[in-house]
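A reminder before we start the practical. When you read a complex entry, don't treat the lines as separate problems. The point of joint prediction is that each chain is placed relative to the others, so the output describes one connected object in space. Small molecules and nucleic acid strands, if listed, are placed in the same frame. In the example below there are two entries. Take a minute to note the order of the lines before looking further.
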Amino acid sequence: MATTITPRARPRVQRLEQIWAERQGLLGWLTTTDHKRIGIMYFFTSLVMFGAGGVEALLIRTQLIGPNGHVLSPQAYDEVFTMHGITMIFLFVIPMTTGAFGNYLIPLMIGSRDMAFPRMNALSYWVYLGSAIFMYVGLAGGHAPNSGWFDYVPLASKAYDPGNNIDFYGWGLIFNGISSTAAAINFIVTIFKLRAPGMSLNRMPLFCFAFLAVSFSLLFALPSLSMATLFLELDRNLGFHFYDAAHGGDPLLWQNLFWIFGHPEVYIIILPAFGIATAIIPTFTERKMVFFPLVALAELLVAFLGFGVWVHHMFVVGFATLTTVYFAAASLIIVIPSAIQLFAWITTIATGKPRFQTPLLWIIGFIVFFMIGGLSGVTVAAIPFDQQVEDSYYIVAHFHFVIFGAAVFPILGGMYFWFPKLTGRMYNEPAGKLSFWMTFVGTFVTFFPMHFLGLLGMPRRVYTYPSGMGWTFWNLLESCGAYLLTAGLLLIFGNLLYSYFRGPEAGSDPFGGDTLEWSTTSPPPAYNYAVIPTVSSPYPMWDKRDRELDTRRLERGEGVLPLGHETPASTVEDAEWDEILSMPSHSIWPPVSALMLTGIFAMLLLRHYWIAVGFGALGGLALIVWHGKEYGSG
Amino acid sequence: MLAVAGVVFFGAIGMLVMAWIRRDTPGLPLIGDREPVAQGLVLVFGIGIPLITLVALFAVADVYLVGQTAPPPPRTTAMTVDVIGHQWWWEVRYPGTAAVTANEIHIPVDTRVDVVATTADVIHSFWVPQLARKIDMVPGRSNRVLLYASRPGRYRGQCAEFCGLQHANMSILVVAQPPAAFRSWLADMAAPAPAAATRSERLGEQLFLTSQCASCHQLRGTSARGLIGPDLSHLATRSTLAALTIPNTMTALEQWIADPQAIKPGNRMPDLGLPHSEVAEIAAYLKSLR
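Here is the predicted structure of the whole assembly.
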């Protein structure tokens, strides 16, 4: 039920409309600091990237549909599978989850009017866009990264990869990391400080716990990646020897630094999916999450433990047995918080009154695939088994069940779930269910036979394979699955596109949701809430009296903040009203700064270091102007 | 492992199916929907059962079995083979003998063989699934792995770590032989390349030694001492060419010498632009090197 705007409250709401209005048209999108519009830009950009990564995946599957395939040359294949990995991880999943879902939903869920740093939020988006274009310029010019997404040296060193391919990777990831770091800081401050009065930490939606965990993981994991890639660029372009064994460096330094980032990265990818699952399940089972505190703890624990297991990516590099055994044990421990969450979801569904509508179906698909990927994950913590299947298609199967089955399914379910909130219209339910079943079966058929291929000895990253190995049938089956999967995905976007224009009106709360975003109109106004809501449980929409109170408080003018571009800040733990923050409004300087940053990285790539310094100076100027006009420019 | 995984997986699926069957009634049969009971389920399935199975798995796999894939302790193996990864082929040396070969490792059956795995360039990974775990070949490191075959046979392996353009065509064959056959093979391999016997072979040898072939390949006992490509002293004894990419037949060998980039694009062997007659002479000579 949305907050009712009575005639007495109308002038206040009109005042809010004026204060929070942004520029019109294209300039409005360019200068926006509205977390919802930034979220939408993130959504469409990462969707384009999903399309690009998907086309790359189809090229791979078409090349491997039979033995001795000739669709792609070896060079093209290497670039395509590398870009597939980079795109899906850095340019699709992370921006889609943190950028689109997090940006749009976190301020709404915690009852705030924006993110803590709206202009930095805009900067995050523009930097992400710049880095995505940066890396795809490489592919367009035939110089895309070609050493796999984990880019092992010395294959990625100048000696073995003399072109610019790897420089697009190295500089591109540092560039991209700036965006994610800024976003992570923004989420942490937003979640800690901008929660609605009464939303103490123990009443915060589990979705927000997941994003808090992701943000901390990003903040601590990214420096390792940025350092590793900076060392790589120094090695490649300025004659350093960090990774050069012939001069006292060590290629395993790269692997360690990369996976210290790379394993937390897996949880960065999947935790938002956990968050989406915990948002969808209570709504469609009409039941509170079983064991809320333990699930919240498990979400944080998964992120924390994720930092202590990276060597399990390196069980075959020749480390001492004791080292590998330690990391195998750590990897097994991480199963526990995952299993807690898994069975909390299942138990909630089993003991509730589940309505098997499209969003819940995707979550069920997610649970099934997360179990498959999780169980195969347990098997590779058995060192002798891992030493057999490492770098084979078994691993490809494992991480696609985790990353596609478990991380992307909730994203797709979430698209259906929050579509009515974003657009005010309802999607088509039968087509939604059909799209789920096509994608579900397609995913299973594509990725499950990869287990068999791995056990039959097929290594990953081969551009072709001979006949007579017993691999032909499974590869053919997988490729067919991939086409079915693609058809399912296209049906989702067809459904949503059609419904955007022709769907029935959805109203503010079509599913009986439990979190605050369902209390505002669909789509929400620029200021999110006419009255800052008060919260007394983790399921604020189910506290009918609190929401009725919102209407009366709006009438009285309590918690409306109609005097300026403002949102309240609250205390970190108990969320008591702390102070009123004057929020910066729309600005052209975030995209300008991002443009300067693009200039810096383009010049680093072209080895015009002095011009890069020039762009740095211009960027500095942009930052000064940005902060010189921080307030009241609207 | 599969059985435990099956129990967990189908148990969970069972609960979801149950939820679907009873979608209109809250709670599960017998236990209802009371919070403490639901929490108990989470504790049992989320902590209890995983803890027991994980400890058991850890004990069996990572404590009891893990020793079997550890590098063999020094002086416990009967022989050592050095395997050196190259983009995109395998160099095989038998320490203590002059034998050098490529892409085919012969070992005696029922013998513990210590493989010392190193690399000449980028990271490769030595993997013969039927005989041993895989082991990475990392610059600056010398890794070891036990190779043991209990039955004579031919076992195919393949590079498992992405190593560039022709990672897909970097395969290896392990031939396990009875000890006597192995000793005789090793003695043959340790010998210099057989001398050219016929006029045609001598012509081929001359072409080989005076063209660019000799700058990359070695023929022990001749002036060809190149160390970039595989040692060809006994090429005719091998069953394949270019790391199992093509069979070692006269036609395939001629095609390989004439246009190696068409068969294995990106490999380090250049197209020498030799006239067809010379290609045939060289191939005929190489086929005589047993």
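Discuss with your neighbour: Residues 199-286 of chain B form a domain with the Immunoglobulin-like fold (CATH 2.60.40.420). What might explain this?
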